[in-house]
Batch of 4 targets.
Target 1
Amino acid sequence: MISLLSFIFAIGIAVLIHEFGHFIFAKRAGVYVQEFAIGMGPKIFSTKKGETTYSIRLLPIGGFVSMAGEGIEFDVEVPRERFIQEASWINKFLIFFMGAGFNFLLAITLVFGINLSQGVPSNEPIIGELVIDGAAMDAGLKEGDILLEIDGTKISKWEDIAATIDDQILVKIDRDGTILEIDVTPIYSEEGERYYLGINSSTEINIVKSFTNAIMSTFDSIRQMFVIIGGLISGDIDSKHLAGPAGIYQMAGRAASAGIISLLSFTAFLSINLGFVNLLPIPALDGGRILILLFEGITRKRINEKLELRLQVIGFSLMIMLLIYATYNDILRFFQ
């Protein structure tokens, strides 16, 4: 039950924010919006306010904002000037882009809040939390120790530590004004292919650093997504690592079991992924529609609406096949 509730919470928040980005900019541009939906499939709740129906649907795996001009039948006669095709170029761009834009803003907001509550890592060479049964704890290092030297190399900032770790090191520390030298045997990780001391940096509560760290962390996650996509295309990353709804369900459950901070971090991660994937230049996704919009802006010619709808159907079919493949991977991982 915890896994299910965590899954609904994480994906629900990410989808809600994404669709709200589309919705608010469509309304701002005067585009007619018939329905704002969270979830897919049959409606389980709906209410109408003004001209728009707000609904929750059975399957918590997506959502949509149905706008005039998207090939959908409407309950009322909609003036042509309220079709999305009639919006200005910049308004259409904002409508398509701000779904992902709001996802990135959500991630920044969540990480900023986490940083304010937990603190941001300090670059000062001061030992924070120790890994239980790690090399540093076994050797007798303590939280609050100031690292001065490792094997004779001076340590002035936290980043200097990684470059000095080997299989056997002599650590000089300042512990409450007393200088000590301690032999440490770092633990080698096959997965990370490096030695680890088993220490974390100290943290500090700082609004500016918390906000800056949130922005940098979000952009670093986006950069990592580019690396992953490139790896999938080149074959360096096996496509069987792709996760579908079942995989996300399992990850949400594991995150929730580690506590609310972990769940919020996972929600931020999921929001970044949702925004990034939607910006891929694939028909039916926001990125595909932005690509068409850029083509129209360059050529000064509007693409045929029927052709655009066909491209969206093709893109949607490809996404369904990819979803089925990812779900197949989830099932294999479950039995393994």
Target 2
Amino acid sequence: MDISKGTVIGGYRVERQLGRGGMSAVFEVVHPTLGVRLAMKVFDAEGERTDFLRGRLLVEGRVLARLEHSNLVKVHDCGFDDATGAPYIVMDLVLSSDGEPRTLSEMHAMREIDEERLFRWYADIASALAYVHSQGIVHRDVKPSNVLIAADGRAVLADFGVSRFSDEGLKRELAVEPTMATDVTTSSKVLLGTTSYLAPEVKRGEAATAKSDMYSLGVMLFRMLTGIWYEPGTGAMNLLGPFDPAWKEILSALLDEDPAKRSMSPRRRRRARLVFLAALCAVLALAAAAAVAWSLAGRSASSRGDAGKSLPAQGMDGRALDDLFFVTK
């Protein structure tokens, strides 16, 4: 399907293409009556699994339309184009501060990620995942290219195209067929998700769960920090030495080989704070010693008739300490 600027799909006018994946393309579109700009995902895959994938796209729309969270893409419309029959989803347009769509993957490639940002984005994604898990949904494809960075700095989780529904009531409500709610498409199993980010139990053929989403999140964070893929049983955690000590605690919890032991609650950087405060105390001690020496030197000068001048006291607002390191809420 040829889609260019000015093409009308489902009543929405296409402005430009923002990106594409294996089964769909994403466009910036304009609402036919309100004139607001939105994003539209249009299905364009072909082949023997087309009907299955088309169905999944519409299920994705129905799933996202019922979810409300600041770190999830909100869906506004979903349907089939009258002229072409192509299914589409209309959702929030998430653009970065430069007016372009930016994913975590792109930010990493451009070397625009530091630890403070990554801590904030981890908290955003963990919050979004905790919410969708509470709604009986497993994302099943957590990876950098499915995380959008908004203009206000938020990380926004997107693309529920291969999500799994663990809640039976939700399956019935969304009219989800069995093949859409499990990993089964025919008589054999297929692996849905991106292999490099899959949890060990999923690679073994077990069903994806909220715990496997946590593992994928851990792999993603580990790669963002170190630039390499995480492999269990290789001593990879030792590579976290140069980074904030809190990362080892966080990633050890996310990447535990036992799913039952995994957790993704953002932790305060307590150890990092202690290290910082110890360093700060050392600096202040040196400053105090220097002040005493300065004072003694001033008195000595004064005793010789020189007019000594004292430095104004330099205070630090206690709140400023928390501005110097990231603390999740």
Target 3
Amino acid sequence: MKQFLLLCTSILFFQSANFAQKIGSETIEIKFTQLPLVPVPNGTMTYDVEYRNAHEEEVNAAENSYVEDKEAAQDEVDSEHQAVKIINAIGGNSTKARVVEKPYLPIVYTESNVLQKFTLNELSRSESPDVKLQINFNGFNYTKLQMTSTKSDVKYYYYSIKAKHEMSVSLTDNTGNIIHEFDVPKSNKIKTSSTKSFSSRSALDAYWANSKHNVLRPLERKITDYNIKVAQREITNQFGISDQTKKVKVGVVSGKKLDYSEYTKAYELVFEGAMLYYDDNENAKVAIKKALDLWEGALKESDLTNKKARVNDKVTAATRYNCALFYCWVNDHNKANYHLMKLKLLDMSKYKRQVKELKVFIDDHKARYEANVES
């Protein structure tokens, strides 16, 4: 009896091994022209760049106030009676101007102190432009909080600095009307820094009064220079046309007992489509559509309840993934979203990350396609 059970088990294992599908993926590269999310108006040939500082008046007012206070403090000394000065000098108590602490004055950004040269596609700069990029600096803001630390039983004091510099970009036409505007991504994110540590609060305060510029200026530069680079990347992303190469994975299926030749053929077709996509887009889409027809045909056999079905739940998931991805490349975003929804409903852990990534890709591809078709 024991030998009989072992024989049955061996037969079942052998049948399962022969039946088992092999579901894998192949990576292909597609070179394509990425369209802008917001096309510049037709006929646009030139552009210019304008810098706007929301904090400029505030900085100028703070600087003027500091200069006036410093001059007033010196005037108090200068106006003191000469006889009193002599007496105080003899007594070793010469009158000094009261200390006027200089505030930190954030940078006012202009063409001369911004290292990044903002570009818009391959348009030429002009003083009478068709469109204008407005780079909006909304002001460097910081807060400081006194903190303490202990080392070798000695208490130290320092300031923790939290800062940010929010920025935005506007594209306007030659009449000043806004075509599009956006906040620079993550420019509202707070960056942290800290000062040197001192053994007393008074020493820390004295250091801050005299050296805040040395602490804050490098921090402001670091934050703003980074945001400026992000601003240019986003200008290219939103308004630009660029050549891109994207790696995509194609689900492939094979098996020993069952015929999956249409999956092999579909892979060959999308590989061909990828090779043609940049230089011969129409024929590339013809090849991809043929592959989609093969996958759609396989889905007609889908049987999610039968593990032994030729197109069971796992094969169905791989096929839905392929369809969601490649319908996008032929600009049929409704079908892409339909297959993505069906893939999501399968609730397979293997595809959770892919579902999220596909959703982002489909939405972005659709937005770019529709923006340029309508324009």
Target 4
Amino acid sequence: MGMTPPLNFCTLFDSQYLPRALVLYHSLEDAGEDFRLYVVCFDDPAYQALAKLNLAKMVAIPLGTFETPQLLAVKGQRSKAEYCWTCTSHVIRYVLDTYHLPDVTYLDADLCFYENPSVLLKEFELSGASVLITEHRYTTQYDQTLTSGIYCVQFMTFKADTRGLAVLQWWQDRCLEWCFARFEDGKFGDQKYLDDWMQRFEGVHVLQHLGGGVAPWNVQQYKLSQKSGKLYVNESPLVFYHFHAYKYYRSGVHAFSPNYLISDEAVEILYRPYARALLQAHDELRSINTNFDSGFSNRGSLIIETAKMIKRKALGVFNEYRIG
């Protein structure tokens, strides 16, 4: 019998997101699946750090190797975040083409895995589809479908077949045309483009497994639990959690997805372990560069921050904790 080929993942980030990306990488390692994580580094410090770390299951790609004339033509017109969104579909295509892969799954760098992702990809394989997308599954009070979309660009699989590449090419073209951090004419960033894929294209599957896509905007709906060292969302194994909008500061304060109600169970089961993993990632990075200091958020003015704190406390979403 032949060996099972590794799962193929890709992502993009700069040195600011590098600690989170290391947590992502190590969580995939701990999940026990053989994989390759292809990374487009959006600044040189991120690339140099990964080159020194030389992680066995990661392939680091410098930005200059990846960028095309078409991307460079729009780069100056977009903010840093908007350019990253513009590039997401192009990173997927670059990895498929350059490494001659049959498929690849894009991951946001602020995901953390608790279970083998192959369970999600098995559902996709059984569907017979060529593209896998995930819903936001918003909790009612956080429903942003109108402005942010039905689906989340967080965990997406594309096969390098006719149907998969047709969807990917369409998405690449749209993101070159328009990809901005504002809601306009039914568009928002790279994400609202996904809204009609089920109608527009053949071969698109929406993930059904409850354990894929738990995030601060939907975790309120679910019962989180821990049994025999495994995490569960309702009765399903938790495969990954999306630590969206997570902030942490040099003072040792971590803001656990402010603006969303995070239960005590979620804090203890998910957020505190993630905070410790981030601190370990910083230690790992300082082992190769004692001056590494990226990843932290900066506080705004005292007046603005105080106003935000008062508002969050009034809404019951003041999720700040000191971790050290």
